[in-house]
Specification:
The protein is mainly α. The chain has one domain (about 5-100). It has helices spanning about 5-15, 20-35, 35-100. Keywords: Membrane, Transmembrane, Transmembrane helix.
Length: about 100
């Protein structure tokens, strides 16, 4: 039975996700054996999903870098404040000692 490319393209997402019926799967298999255009469409679906997964991984990595940067920034700020307080205390002790 000859099935149009439009019908096969409608079935391709279900075929790719492996959720179509066995009969639909057979139709798609038979069609893509003879139709290069639909076969390429199926192959492009896997490339789009791979790129999307890669982008999600990169986004997660950037979120982790951002979290670390913020944490390190706050840590550096805290250390700077602590060092400033210590220096002020030491200087005030020296000033008191010299004034006696």
């Amino acid at each position: 039975m000859k099935i149009s490319c439009d019908v096969i393209r409608d079935l391709l997402p279900l075929y790719y996700d492996n959720i179509c019926s066995e009969e639909s799967r057979k139709l798609v298999n038979e069609h893509i054996e003879t139709c290069e255009k639909c076969k390429m469409e199926l192959e492009s679906m896997s490339m789009v999903i791979d790129v999307t997964k890669k982008n999600l991984d990169e986004m997660e990595m950037m979120k982790n870098v951002s979290r670390r940067w913020r944490r390190d920034k706050l840590k550096s700020l805290g250390e700077g404040i602590l060092i400033t307080i210590i220096v002020v205390l030491i200087l005030s002790c020296f000033i008191r000692i010299k004034s006696f």
